[in-house]
Amino acid sequence: MTEATRLFMYGKIHRATVTGADVDYVGSITVDPLLLAAAGIYPHTMVDVVNVTSGERIQTYVIEGPAGGGDICLNGAAAHKFRAGDLAIIMAYEQVPLSQLPGRVSRAVHVDGRNRLVFVDKHVTPSLDDLGRNSRLGEKYRSVPEAEKA
C-alpha cells in the first residue's frame, strides 16, 4: 500500500516588491535566482503568487531573471493581476509522505524594498503530538528596519 501524502509549502519569498508586469511575454513569473536559491525554488516549477496589495492569487511557473537584479516580474496573463510596486508572496510546494512531515523545514525568505535578501526564517513542522506548543497566533510580519531598506 502506498503511503498517503500531503502538499507541503517548503519555501516562499515573502512580501517581495513586483518590479514589472509584461502582458506580451509568453507566461510565468521572472524571479531573481538569488531569491530562488534562498527559498529552494527551482526554475520551471509551479508556484502560487499572492498579491498582498490587491488580494489576487495566481498559479504559474518560475523562470530566472538576472542574478542580483531583484526582479519579480509577472508575465503573460498574470500581468493583468499585478502592477509594479505591488507586494507579492511567492510560495512553492512539494508532495511529501505523511511520515516525512514531522521535522520537515519550511523556509520564508524576507527581502527589503529592492528585493535584496535580508533574512530567512526556518519553520520546523511539528509532529501531531507536538501541535499547539509553538502557536503563531497573532504573529505579525516583522518589517525590515528602515536602515536595511536603503
TrEMBL record:
Its cofactor is pyruvate. GO terms for cellular component: cytosol. Its main location: cytoplasm. Its EC number is 4.1.1.11. It is found in: Cytoplasm. The active site is at 28 (schiff-base intermediate with substrate), 61 (proton donor). It comes from Desulfocurvibacter africanus subsp. africanus str. Walvis Bay. This is Aspartate 1-decarboxylase. GO terms for biological process: alanine biosynthetic process; pantothenate biosynthetic process. SUPFAM superfamilies: ADC-like.
